[in-house]
Design brief:
By secondary structure, the protein is of the alpha+beta class. 27% of the residues lie in helices and 31% in strands. The protein is built from three helices and five strands. A hairpin with a 2-residue loop joins strand 1 and strand 2.
Length: 98
């Protein structure tokens, strides 16, 4: 896991006519509606503030090398077809009773 796994989480969804839309916030909300839409693993996550590894960056220990206990659920994969279907179902509603 690691960078290659993050590449599987959709950054954008094809919304038609050759346009993509960023979906970070929508995917986060989708996990509240359908929790199984993303796959997560427990990892230790911290923000580097001392400049030892980097400065001001979020560091995710996907290989448990730090020796710290996992403190976060990290999404590394998403079911893109299921997510797109959810978006179409929700955004396709008119809000009017049938």
């Amino acid at each position: 896991m690691g960078a290659e796994a993050v590449d599987r989480v959709p950054d954008a969804v094809d919304i038609g006519q050759g346009h993509d839309a960023p979906v970070h916030d929508a995917l986060a909300v989708a996990t509240l509606v359908e929790p199984g839409i993303v796959s997560t693993v427990r990892c230790h996550v911290d923000v580097e503030t001392s400049g030892e590894l980097t400065l001001g960056r979020t560091v995710v220990d996907t290989h448990a090398r730090s020796g710290h206990e996992p403190n976060c659920e990290v999404a590394l994969d998403a079911d893109e077809p299921r997510f797109v279907d959810l978006l179409h179902r929700i955004l396709g509603r008119t809000g009017r009773p049938d």
